[in-house]
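for ur thesis appendix - Uracil phosphoribosyltransferase. copy paste whatever u need, i formatted it the way the template wanted (i think)
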Amino acid sequence: MTEQHLNVVDHPLIQHKLTLMREKDTSTAVFRQLLREISQLLAYEVTRGLPMTTKRIETPMMEMDAPTLDGKKLALISILRAGNGLLDGVLELIPSARVGFVGLYRDEETLQPVQYYFKAPDALEDRLVIAVDPMLATGNSSVAAIDLLKKAGATNIRFLCLLAAPEGVATMKAAHPDVPIVTAALDEKLNDVGYIMPGLGDAGDRMFGTK
Ligand code: URA
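the 3d part is after this line
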């Protein structure tokens, strides 16, 4: 696992908020608010190194060549449904981003992810594409989502999550070594039914108040 492939953002604010999110008695409202805050902090990291250019502007004092983002608007892709929790916060920081959605379910017989929805912005090949899903667990759905994005033309993809399991990171690295992963924490392992340990439970249920 090279550092370039996996970036665990070890920032005090992120780690403090993540601990509050992990606690089982944290309410849905607080969980959602914390996720929004952490996603903004993670967005800062996942957008590091974006191409820049300059534009000529006039400050009240004088003219200058000031830095500004270059290239086409980036694409945020939410892997449904829990991805929407990360998406909201990232969009607040990058309001002009284009947005897409990937919906996958697990076939109970083959245990493989099956696509039920896919909608992505145009010209994916010209954009930085950031796929978001809070939990990188087995990695199967993340790999399938990235497969779909590549098939749709994406060549420059980053993956943003809140928690990752070593198994999921390994699966992603084997299938998509060109896709860097940014996460708030790398947990110990998966349990028998694919939940991240110690984790925070089912991210979708916790953010939407379902069981
Ligand atoms: N999805 C979740 O929401 N939680 C896990 O622990 C694993 C996958």
